[in-house]
Write a structure and sequence with these properties.
Length: 369
């Protein structure tokens, strides 16, 4: 398979060669047409969608939702979120996972479907302004992702050809179906969501801002994830990926750990043949249930997965904005994150299909796995 640097250089060379040919995508791959508020257009051959050329600057946004442990249900959509996008190069033999800081101060455009007039605030509110208002849970989530995608597109020029949304309950169900995942803890992390007693029994907890952990039974203590690699159950893997407060780099560390979990899930699914077996894949999607929503613009999931068959889990490159370092700005007493000039250049490279070239020149943006 070669080294990561070698694969990145080959990807950069391929993208450059396709641009020199004047072909934005080069390889004829099956992919999803970005909607631009219009139905996707497909040519039919023998009753199946024809393969289309891959365009640069396309990706799939994913929004992760938190549940309030004390409520046990999704609330009004304003719970914390982490916004990610998966970008695929023209050859479709590699993928990049980029996380945007939830506290990024941005201009959120108006969203007429819910009567929202636009504002300047943290980007994680973009989902909320689409989610609010009447409709079924599915309809509200669809609006939320649409509002988020429009916000990211306005800021970066990146267009999307699909979307996924999943909350932690959905992630836990997927990992449980896979039988756990292998994770490497890179920093000691203390949980605020799980406790454990002397007999090893685990308790679900919740955290109240300003007061700390709630519902911790007598004699029990918070779960602590010590450094090192190990097999994790679904419950422990999801807990580790949720932790922020005890990490030295806060939300950037949580972003990195959630990216690592996604890669671990991809590795597990690949090793067990889930990606290439429609029946196994369907079982995993069913396990996630209503907690997982995948919008492929009307294209069957198996056709969507076809695009990613060449992406081995080892070729999923994790990208960190601001190179994983805080870039805090205080406005009217509230703290926000701002993206550095280099991070904006990185997003421009995503838009233009030059991400492989960017990370070769800026390796500090690659997160450790």
């Amino acid at each position: 398979m070669g080294t990561l640097d070698g694969r990145l250089r080959r990807g950069a060379h391929d993208a450059q060669r396709h641009r020199h040919r004047g072909r934005p995508g080069g390889h004829r791959q099956r992919h999803l047409q970005h909607r631009d508020h219009q139905p996707a257009r497909w040519r039919r051959r023998g009753g199946r969608p024809a393969r289309r050329q891959q365009h640069q600057g396309r990706g799939q946004p994913a929004a992760g939702r938190h549940r309030r442990p004390s409520q046990g249900q999704l609330r009004d959509g304003r719970a914390g979120r982490h916004d990610r996008r998966a970008a695929h190069p023209p050859s479709h033999d590699q993928a990049y996972l980029v996380s945007l800081p939830r506290d990024w101060r941005v201009q959120i455009p108006a969203y007429p479907k819910t009567g929202f007039g636009g504002s300047t605030e943290k980007i994680n509110s973009a989902f909320s302004y689409g989610y609010q208002g009447p409709g079924t849970e599915l309809e509200k989530r669809a609006r939320g992702v649409d509002s988020l995608a429009q916000t990211v597109h306005t800021l970066t020029g990146i267009k999307f050809n699909g979307a996924a949304i999943i909350d932690f309950a959905g992630f836990e169900s997927v990992v449980k179906t896979l039988g756990g995942v292998n994770m490497c803890v890179d920093e000691r992390a203390e949980s605020i969501h799980l406790g454990i007693d002397k007999k090893g029994k685990i308790y679900k907890l919740w955290y109240k801002e300003g007061e700390g952990i709630q519902d911790l039974p007598p004699g029990a203590k918070a779960v602590v994830h010590e450094k090192g690699c190990r097999r994790m159950s679904a419950e422990l893997a999801l807990d580790y990926a949720r932790i922020r407060k005890s990490l030295s780099d806060g939300d950037y560390g949580r972003q990195r750990h959630q990216q690592q979990l996604i890669k671990a899930i991809a590795k597990e699914a690949t090793s067990k043949g889930v990606i290439t077996n429609p029946l196994k894949l369907n079982n995993v999607i069913k396990a996630a249930g209503k907690a997982f929503v995948l919008d492929t613009q009307g294209i069957p999931v198996e056709d969507f997965i076809f695009t990613l068959r060449g992406v081995a889990a080892h070729d999923l490159v994790l990208i960190k904005t601001n190179a994983g370092k805080f870039n805090t700005q205080r406005v009217n007493g509230q703290e926000f994150e701002q993206l550095s000039e280099e991070s904006l250049q990185m997003l421009g490279a995503v838009r233009d299909g030059r991400l492989a070239e960017f990370v070769i020149s800026n390796p500090q943006f690659i997160a450790k796995t």
